[in-house]
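Escalated from tier 1: flavin mononucleotide holo job.
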Amino acid sequence: MNQDLTIADLKERARRRVPKMFFEYADSGAWTEGTYRANEEDFHKIKLRQRVLVDMTNRSLESEMIGEKVSMPVAIAPTGFTGMQHADGEMLAAQAAEEFGVPFTLSTMSICSIEDVRSVTSKPFWFQLYVMQDRDFVLNLIDRAKAAGCSALVLTLDLQILGQRHKDLRNGLSAPPRFTPKHLWQMATRPFWCLDMLGTKRRTFGNIVGHAKGVGDLSSLSSWTSEQFDPQLSWKDIEWIRDRWGGKLILKGILDEEDARMSLDSGADAIIVSNHGGRQLDGAASSISMLPRIVDAVGDRMEVHLDGGIRSGQDVLKALCYGAKGTYIGRPFLYGLGAGGKAGVRRTLEIIRKELDVTMALCGERDVKNLSRNNLHKDI
Ligand SMILES: Cc1cc2nc3c(=O)[nH]c(=O)nc-3n(C[C@H](O)[C@H](O)[C@H](O)COP(=O)(O)O)c2cc1C
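Tier 2 regenerated the structure:
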């Protein structure tokens, strides 16, 4: 994997290693995938100011996100089904992130459970919460995240109902995988993935099965998940969630200045400017295009983070220049994981760190915390 020099290289390796239905689950957006594409494309429109003859020694990428030290301001985004990109995927990615010194966020819809991830890590990770209609289940999840020592709750707000991804429907995606001839063929052509999968028991939603009422077995799981997202979730709900949790709270899925101001009033510690990686509202603006105005609206009073479309350290740098205090990567770490498990996630982080470091130097900066709009061209 050391010959993989870019996130695109890791993506191609993952494509060859992961069964089609799971690879495409990651590499897909809602409907026309217009917002999915815009998330990446809009980064390319931003031009960096090249500076020369400045001292480039002693550079630092260290920073803080919600008061926690990070070796670079790049966290692992919460992603569902991660244990289907690679056996025990969440556990491996969490370990890679911990060793690298960046936050790992575990999804509610993970394959490995909160307790699984806790059992293989020694530092606190972050937990992402979907608010389900079964409030007892939600309260219990919050308590489990607390008991596992999670240091932040990331509350996702942009999935009250599910957007539609055509690839998933065409592939007949499910967890655990179904064994139709088509699915069997997709798996049979990925023997290394199969071998790893045979070596683990974790093949369904670990946070849900055995914890949610009426979901003791797998047949009851799919109807439960599709019915459980709460279309009536409101700003009022943030209050009881915040009270029950009692720790750092990050609101994920903010793409509008007005919602950013409401987030501020809700008492959250940070927001993530995000459109769910283009997987929900197709036609929504890209995350990076909305970042400057959201920073202008609330950035002096709360931390603003960003995810969506980051494929390089240069993209990270551009987000930081626009005022993001932290960024998250979804697909880049999934491709690394699919390509090579824990070593693949480490490779993803190494590639991004190297690119961020060199880009920062060539922009004439030595400390990631000093980046600002001054490092970008305003009119090109
Ligand atoms: C395969 C996949 C699964 C995801 N599952 C979740 C999830 O369970 N919870 C959540 O809050 N966001 C989820 N997201 C959104 C990510 O947290 C993040 O917002 C997005 O991936 C960022 O865009 P990027 O993939 O371009 O980096 C998912 C994204 C992908 C690609």
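The first strand starts at residue 63 and ends at 65.
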